[in-house]
Amino acid sequence: MIQINEWLPNPAGTDYGAEWIELWNDGGSSVSLADWKLSDSKKTYSLGDKTLNPGEYWVLNAKTAGLTLRNQEETLTLKRTDGQIESTSHFLGTAQEGKSWAWNGAGYAWSEPSPGKENIFSAILAEDNLPRGVALNKFSSVGIQEAALGAALLLALGIMFLIKRNDDQENIFRGGDQENRGTFG
Q1: In 10 A of CB 61, how many CB atoms?
Q2: CA pair distance 182, 185, nearest whole angstrom
Q3: Is residue 136 part of a domain?
Q4: Residue 53: inside a domain, yes or no?
């Protein structure tokens, strides 16, 4: 499998020309990337005629690829010739300056940049991998309040529908028809 292994969306200092993306062949056979596509949130880059051998890393300069990596909530997607997604990588919040977003075997985390080499993770970075100022479930408190209000309105409408539908219940809740009060049947 070809993995989006590591990428640097927010280099220390200026971003222009310093951003990069690393692909890695973690499989047991060579893979031709002819007609494969790599895209960020705005643009798509055709990978050309590159072949990655088993265990090989390939570092692409984002500027050369025509990609501009966003520093907030960016997504990279790698698609095979048939259009199927081979690998995708996404982070929430703001990219840590000077840190790469790297594959750790189970998911992605911020790491020390290591282009063309095995990814480097430290205990300090591992503790600091949650986005700052962004709800992890991507719901804001306003969204939750709106959802609760919507649920309450739907519940109220459902109850009104049931009441209207059943004349006996309508009579009980509204005081009923005076001439039928007290009679059954």
Answers
A1: 13
A2: 10
A3: no
A4: yes
pTM for the full predicted model: 0.66
Pairing status of strand 108-111 against strand 75-79:
unpaired
Q: Indicate the SS3 state at residue 162.
A: helix
What region, left, alpha or beta, does residue 79 occupy, with left being phi > 0 and alpha being psi -120 to 50 degrees? Answer: beta
pLDDT single digits (tens) 148-161: 777 788 888 878 77
Do 18 and 105 share a domain, yes or no? yes
Counting DSSP H helices and E strands in the chain, the numbers are 3, 11
Distance CA(38)–CA(62), nearest Å, equals 10
The single-letter code of the amino acid at 117 is K
Angle at 111 between CA 137 and CA 127, to 5 degrees: 55
Q: What is the 3-state composition of the chain as percent helix, strand, coil, each rounded to the nearest 5?
A: 20, 30, 50
Query: pLDDT tens digit string along 3-12?
Result: 999 999 999 9
Instruction: Say how far apart CA 144 and CA 105 lie, in whole Å.
Output: 34
CA–chain centroid gap for 58, Å, is 24
Whether residues 84 and 153 share a domain: the answer is: no
Verify that 115 and 173 share a domain, yes or no: no
Q: How many CB atoms lie within 10 A of CB 72?
A: 13
Instruction: List the one residue out of 110, 113, 103, 115 whose CA is nearest residue 60.
Output: 115
